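seq as requested:
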Amino acid sequence: VLSCTASSHSLRYFYTAVLEPSQGLPQFVQVGYVDSEPITHYDSSTRRKRPAAPWMEKVGEDDAQYWERGTQKLHKTEQMLRENLATLQKYYNQKGGLHTLQWMYGCELESDGSKGGYMQFGYDGSDYLNLDKEHLRWTAADATAQISKVKLEAEPAIAQRSKAYLEEECVEWLQRYLDYGKETLLRTESPEVKVTCHKSSTEDVETLICRAHGFYPKEIEAAWTRDGESCEHETFRSRVAPNPDGTYYISLYTDVEPEERGRYRCRVAHAGLSQPLVLAWEGPAGEKRLGKGEGTDQGLDSCKLSFP
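struct tokens:
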């Protein structure tokens, strides 16, 4: 049985250093995100840390040195990652060409209050090093990365400081940003859900499609059921993807025999709904677009032959 789901939140930072950048691609870029929304931006062209969301201006109003401190820190980080990138090129015996070093870390605050965090490095689009913060060790992705692993583990304080940041300071900043941006980040927009039916290329088989869109936050529970039981193993689902307006959408597909379609329902639960929606295909006599917060559990009629 689906229940309305609460939301979790994350604070993540992505750094990218590039060797021999091309036009329009700075040598160094850093972007910070709360959930899926960019909040800060820095690159080697501007060399300034700047807000990427309007509500982030409030941080500087409360702390006049916030942006300057962040800028000076990123100057040092930019230099460090450029040097590390040159070192990795030597480790891999490479000369020239386009090479990238990425540093990614972040923390999560789950709806039940639990916390999580990660830190990893990537080289040329592949994993390089990952921090195992529970055991204060570094995991190397290949033999070359073992060189960096040995160097980092020779200074245990690096892993200890990283663990402390991810579990404490990062979560504190996440909570602070959520408060600054609460009108955007803590809002709820209920899903608008639509059920359609499509004649499959396979004879005598139809595909029921359940689409939920326009919802926020990202967390949603959606499933096809048959006689009230989940059809998870018979369902193909798209990933939850963003819309241009900052909301999200998801689609679920399941193949059914025409005489069986009356047994199927799409159930959707979301924080923006007071209770889960239960929806069924209503047939071509008048396809109903289900508005936010509405649902139906009526019997099913015949099936449309194409997408609307």
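Confidence is low (pLDDT under 50) at residues 285-308.
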